[in-house]
Amino acid sequence: MPSDPGIPPSDPYPPHPPLPALTRLQEELRRAEATVTGMLEAGERQHRQQQGTLMAGLVELVEGREAQRRRLLELEHGARSTFVGCQSGANLVAPVPSTIIDPQIEPLPGGARTGLAGVDYRNLVDRDFLTEPAALRALDKRLEEGQQVRVVDHPLTKLVVVDDRLAMVRLSPERSMVLKPPLVMLVSELFEAHWRRSRPYLREEGDLGPADQRILQLMLSGLTDAATAKQLGTSPRTVQRRLRVLMDAAAVSSRVQLGWYAVRNNWV
Predict the structure, then answer these.
(1) Are 53 and 75 in contact (CB under 8 A)?
(2) Is the peptide bond before 173 cis (omega within 30 degrees of 0)?
(3) Contact partners, residue 106, CB within 8 Å, separation at least 6
(4) Which long-range contacts (CB under 8 A, 24 or more apart) does 210-217 make?
(5) Res 122: pLDDT
(6) Most distant CA pair in the chain: distance in Å?
(7) What are the residues facing 181 on neighbouring strands?
(8) Cα gap 119→76, rounded to integer Å
């Protein structure tokens, strides 16, 4: 079969990877998130203005960081079958390090305390979350507990869905909204749309060890070598050396090509 004349036979990767489809998908997700958030903010205004309306019975406003944290705990402890959530950076309500280090802090989505027995956890994080202090340690702990963890390359709205019957969405650092059916389905569908377009945080199968998978994951998420080294507790020189080894193994000459090779060959 003749090769594509536009791509040299010795280079299996186009110099300009076909990104339009991926870009369109991400833009669709951003529009969907904006639509859902806009509807919730409109619902919040109506809720404040007309406490006796039907909307008031479908939503619950939670104001203040401590109140949000407590409500989040109540939702998690009330889960019976599923607890799914999207996590982003700047975790002011539930700081990642405190969920690992402080034994007085109770379980929180994205943290490292033991999840509820019999509950299926799915955790979705974005690149901003991966820059949080101790984020990788938190995610590793989640995997050890049998929870699923996946990553996306675009910003996420912080939210959780419990048993498809209650959802909590953060509108701002100081405000969240808890939704009841049928509104909860909007948030559940948004989570599933992100989940379908995500990638595993670490793969159990494959030729790469966890250390190299983490380096690739952080590289794909846009972290600098210095930031990656800080997250992994190593030096930038070590990160650069491992990436060079991976590039040689993939027979590519740039990090962009390495990223595409890693995704296509299930390295991450």
Answers:
(1) no
(2) no
(3) 73, 113
(4) 211/242, 212/242, 212/246, 212/267, 213/267, 213/268, 214/136, 215/239, 215/242, 215/243, 215/246, 216/246, 216/258, 216/259, 216/262, 216/267, 216/268, 217/130, 217/151, 217/268
(5) 96
(6) 70
(7) none
(8) 10
Residue 123: closest CA among 105, 138, 106: 138
**DSSP letters spanning 172-188:** ETTEEEEE-TTTHHHHH
Q: In angstroms, rounded to a whole number, what is the distance separating the alpha carbons of residues 75 and 46?
A: 24
CATH number for the domain whose boundaries are 205-264: 1.10.10.10
C-beta neighbour count of 165 within 10 angstroms: 16
The order of strands in the sheet holding 148-151 is: 59-63, 175-179, 166-172, 159-162, 82-87, 120-125, 148-151, 199-200
The tokens of 7 are what? 């791509």
Task: Give pLDDT, residue 116.
Answer: 80
The residue assigned the tokens 């280090």 is 101
DSSP-assigned beta bridge partners for residue 200? 150
Note whether 131 and 232 are within 8 A (CB): no
What would the pLDDT profile of 177-212 be if each residue is shown by its tens digit?
999 998 899 899 999 999 998 988 988 776 788 899
263 or 228: whose pLDDT is higher? 228
Burial of 197 (0-12, 13-18, 19+ CB in 10 A): middle
Band of the pLDDT at 246, cuts 50, 70, 90? very high
179, 58 Cβ separation under 8 angstroms: yes
For the chain, give every domain's residue range.
Answer: 21-200, 205-264
Token output for 61: 């406003």
CATH architecture of 21-200: 2-Layer Sandwich (3.30)
